[in-house]
Design a protein that fits this description.
The complex is a heterotrimer of chains A (about 325), B (about 280) and C (about 325). Chain A is an all-alpha fold. Chain A contains 13 helices and two strands, in the order ααααββααααααααα. A two-stranded antiparallel sheet of chain A has the order 1-2. Classes of the chains: A mainly alpha (about 325), B mainly alpha (about 280), C alpha/beta (about 325).
Chain lengths: ~325, ~280, ~325
């Protein structure tokens, strides 16, 4: 375990300057945004006098010098405050906090789906390499890689919701249904399937192709020949010796595409009216609420850093050869 | 004829790569010929609303909720996708190559700083950053192109850096330095021509990603409001999903075909230029 | 009456695609004896070894012949029965211990899985047996080493682990394919001594594949010399070293400085066998003919079979150098 702890310390250390840079850039973008909270409120209200605007600015600290604003921004961050959204009339962090679990649920489900389906497909493809099953699955993988998630989501809605009526077309649950226990869970699952699948398409393709290539490479290694010479069954060889070694490159890639999932969540959540950060970001764009938008940007960047660290740790745990680099 | 083992020959013998290239050329041709084939503004209302595809010979793909020609929209949409896709890739490749070459060739603290820069840019979820950039400025072809380009350069930068790092130690570079050539000359005239293979392969994937990003952007209504693009057509079709689902399906199919063709070309290029790295 | 041989290989033909790697090989191994299969790289000895376990790579095929192990033809067995043989009755130790062990698993599971795929015993008992095996192959502190990863062991120890895995189920035949080629010279003797000891302990037949004549002279009972996929000469070890008959065998012995140790200081060039290993497919007659100083025209056209020469156990595939009194046998 100490190997893992050492990796943790190393990656945490390296992440610090990146975090600082992201915070600075985020602030910079915030200042670049046209108009500020006072303008936004004035636009909501219809109009405002000069004095009202000045008072609003003073209230939000918008008339302070840049550096003071920056420092108060940092100070706020350290208190986990991302500012205040004048349009939603609540702190940004609370707003984000309400929507974050929805997005996390969606993304984690999409990720898990992608891992299971992708790795499974990759193993099958490598087992039938060059034959019909492999070719068919390869074409499907390429299609999944080329399809925009939002359009596929719409098509899924057409098929499963409009034509077949099996699955709901949006939302995270049936509102006001008063379900509890297992029916409630089933209702949530029914709402989750289509958006999670739409979000996972891209990843499924990547994992399938990667696992296929990886397994084929591992298959020719000497230790597989040794395993066969020991008289082990094909199933044991594939699952225990080949798969474990073949998954190492997958862990590298796993973190790399997480940011694509975050971006994809914006459109998928919009298509499925899913209550999450993605749709919140979209609403914020429409309403020109930049404090919310940039709060989401900051938070998701931090999540990406966190996930990258997790991937590093996972690799250190999986591969005993990775010691201190 | 073309010598047997050159990359071009290898590419042309790959059936999927050739298929992809054919589709791609078709798309590009459509994009270039749009003003010739459909000289009118695709946003014009030309017929009654909700004509289904294959019902009216004049409008083979039907019309939308405002009576606009779907086929005209799709062909004009190709222009937008191709334009933004390629232009933003140019931006990304130029920036990425410059940064990557500098980092890879000079090494040391310059390298550390530039690597850190690439890391920072890669930490922002790309689509989110694009949305932020486009909404801070106003959506237009120029801003969208720049935003997508800004988001795509780090991938290319890393690639170029890796190539330059390995090529830097080669004999022909040492020879050039021994002759007193300036750094710029070595980078552009000596090393860069040898590093083009991975850049070319990544270019097609970058264009594909750019097209997807642009379509997502216009789907959300953040595209250039004066232009018809596939994403905006899908976005408009979303409201008629129950009755006129072809409005969302057809532009999407065009999108899938274009991106697929780019991926096929990318795979073909990869096989042709990196025969060692080819899978079985 | 001669005891039934443990392994009886007859007329073995192995090809890789269009190239023939082994062209009509015969040999036998008796229980408890060490047979050395000697030759340069490319002579087909590794292909032979792999074919005994039916582990040839996808490009390789046994075109013809039979491999009788305890009177059963291995080539006719179903895959399921073959798997029972592998690791159980016939085991193999490979040349490169580093790449032949799975680097993401500790040593323990790699040994216990070999045990448990042939014996239905619990994990705990298997682990205890694994520790005993590590002791048997003289790895110090076996109870600690069993939980280590391959990369924290030295090359010699890794090879011992491979040997432990191979003898875990008390095989009747152990194939060692260049077991010490990748190891330091000082370790080589230890590993071979271990193999010999285990052979006697477990009454195994040992097929030792090597290109090193020094090892052969120290550890083998009988020797088969291969060239170009064919057997050139076969004899008990003392006979071979005392009177090698085949030009290739003679060339090999002359090249090996250790064996010419009575001439400790040579004031001349090290002798070599001129030419290079011919592709076995190219030659119609004797594969060694292109490089042979005493080749006749007939050598290039007629493929010589191995026939007794002198001593009844001494087989020779060379009509030119057969001892005079038996020249008539080569009609």
């Amino acid at each position: 375990m100490s190997r893992v702890l050492r990796t943790l310390r190393r990656t945490a250390f390296q992440a610090v300057p990146t975090v600082i840079a992201i915070v600075v850039i985020d602030f910079f973008l915030l200042r670049l945004a046209p108009g500020d909270a006072a303008d936004a409120l004035a636009a909501e209200a219809g109009s405002a006098t000069e004095e009202t605007m000045a008072a609003l600015r003073a209230h939000f600290g918008l008339d302070q010098p840049e550096i003071v604003q920056f420092l108060s921004y940092i100070g706020n961050l350290l208190h986990f405050s991302l500012g205040y959204s004048p349009l939603y009339n609540m702190p940004v962090s609370r707003l984000i906090g309400e929507r974050l679990p929805g997005s996390l649920l969606l993304m984690v489900t999409a990720f898990s789906l992608a891992l299971v389906i992708g790795i499974g497909a990759g193993v099958v493809m490598s087992a039938f390499a060059g034959r019909f099953a492999d070719r068919v699955l390869s074409i499907i993988a390429l299609l999944f890689y080329s399809v925009p998630g939002f359009w596929f989501g719409l098509m899924l809605i057409v098929v499963f919701s409009v034509w077949l009526g099996w699955l709901p077309s949006g939302g995270a649950e049936t509102i006001g249904s008063g379900l509890t226990g297992f029916p409630w869970l089933w209702d949530r699952v029914r709402h989750l399937i289509l958006p999670a699948f739409s979000l996972s398409l891209f990843l499924i393709a990547i994992y399938a192709r990667l696992v296929r290539a990886s397994m084929l490479e591992v298959r020719d290694q000497d230790y597989i020949r040794t395993a066969k010479a020991k008289g082990l069954s094909n199933r044991v060889i594939t699952l225990r010796h080949m798969l474990w070694n073949a998954l190492l490159p997958v862990t590298t890639v796993a973190g790399m595409h997480f940011d694509a999932i975050l971006g994809g969540a914006v459109v998928v959540e919009t298509v499925f009216s899913w209550p999450g950060l993605g749709r919140l970001a979209f609403e914020a764009v429409l309403k020109r609420d930049f404090s919310v938008l940039l709060g989401i940007l900051l938070l998701s960047s931090l999540i990406v850093i966190f996930v990258n660290m997790l991937v590093d740790l996972l690799q250190a745990w999986l591969d005993p050869r990775i010691a201190l680099r | 004829m073309i010598p047997r083992r050159t990359p071009l020959a290898l590419f042309l013998r790959n059936p999927t790569g050739v298929a992809g290239l054919s589709i791609l050329l078709l798309v590009i041709a459509g994009a270039l010929l749009a003003p010739v084939l459909f000289p009118d503004d695709p946003l014009d209302m030309v017929t009654r609303p909700f004509v289904w595809p294959l019902q009216d010979a004049a409008y083979p793909l039907g019309s939308d909720s405002l009576g606009r020609d779907v086929l005209a929209g799709i062909v004009h949409g190709a222009r937008v996708s191709v334009l933004i896709g390629f232009a933003s890739t140019v931006v990304g490749v130029v920036i990425g190559t410059l940064v990557g070459a500098t980092a890879g060739y000079f090494g040391g603290r310059t390298d550390d700083a530039l690597v850190r820069l690439m890391e920072v840019f890669q930490t922002f979820p790309p689509f989110l950053l694009i949305i932020v950039l486009v909404s801070i400025t106003e959506p237009s072809v120029a801003t969208i192109t720049l935003s997508i380009g800004i988001v795509s350069w780090p991938t290319i930068g890393r690639l170029v850096r890796a190539e330059f790092r390995s090529l830097r130690e080669r004999d022909f570079v040492l020879a050039a330095r021994g002759l007193g050539y300036s750094a710029a000359r070595i980078v552009f005239l000596e090393i860069l021509p040898n590093a083009t293979a991975p850049i070319v392969v990544t270019t097609s994937v970058t264009v594909a990603t750019a097209i997807l990003n642009e379509s997502a952007l216009s789907f959300l209504g953040l595209g250039d409001p004066n232009l018809v693009s596939w994403g905006s057509m899908i976005g408009a079709g979303r409201d008629q999903l129950r009755t006129a689902w072809y409005l969302a399906a057809l532009p999407g199919a065009a999108l899938v075909l274009s991106v697929l063709s780019l991926n096929l070309v990318g795979d073909g290029l990869n096989d042709a230029l990196n025969p060692r790295a080819r899978g079985r | 009456m001669m005891p039934q041989p443990l392994l009886d290989v007859r007329d073995l033909f192995i090809s890789f695609g269009d190239t023939a790697a082994v062209r009509g090989l015969d040999f036998t191994i008796r229980r408890g004896e060490t047979l050395a299969l000697v030759g340069e790289s490319g002579c087909g000895k590794s292909a032979t070894a792999l074919s005994l376990l039916r582990l040839l790579p996808p490009a390789g095929r046994v075109v013809r012949g039979s491999i009788l192990f305890e009177d059963r033809d291995i080539l006719r067995l179903r895959e399921k029965e073959m798997r029972r043989l592998r690791g159980g009755a016939i085991s193999m130790v490979f040349q490169e211990p580093m790449t032949s062990l799975n680097s993401v698993l500790t040593i323990g599971p790699q040994i216990t899985e070999a045990i448990r795929s042939h014996d239905r015993i619990s994990a705990r008992v298997a682990r205890a047996r694994a520790i005993e095996l590590l002791d048997l192959v003289r790895i110090p502190e076996a109870h600690r080493r069993i939980d280590e990863y391959p990369h924290s062991l030295s090359g010699g120890m890794r090879q011992r682990v491979m040997i432990a895995m191979a003898v875990a189920c008390r095989p009747r035949l152990l194939i060692a394919d260049e077991p010490t080629t990748a190891l330091d010279v000082t370790i080589q003797a230890q590993v071979l001594e271990l193999l010999d000891h285990l052979r006697r302990d477990l009454s195994m037949g040992l097929l030792l594949i090597t290109h090193d004549l020094g090892l052969v002279s120290d550890w083998a009972d009988r020797v088969v010399v291969m060239y170009g996929g064919r057997k050139c000469e076969e004899a008990p070890v003392e006979t071979l070293f005392r009177s090698p008959l085949h030009p290739y065998t003679r060339g090999l012995m002359a090249c090996s400085p250790k064996l010419a140790s009575d001439l400790f200081f040579r004031n001349g060039r090290l002798p070599e066998v001129s030419g290079s290993v011919a592709s076995a497919a190219d030659v119609a007659g004797c594969p060694f003919a292109p490089r042979c100083a005493s080749a006749l025209d007939s050598c290039r056209n007629v493929r010589p079979d191995a026939k007794p020469a002198g001593h009844r156990d001494h087989l020779l595939a060379c009509p030119v150098h057969a001892p005079a009194e038996h020249a008539l046998a080569f009609g």
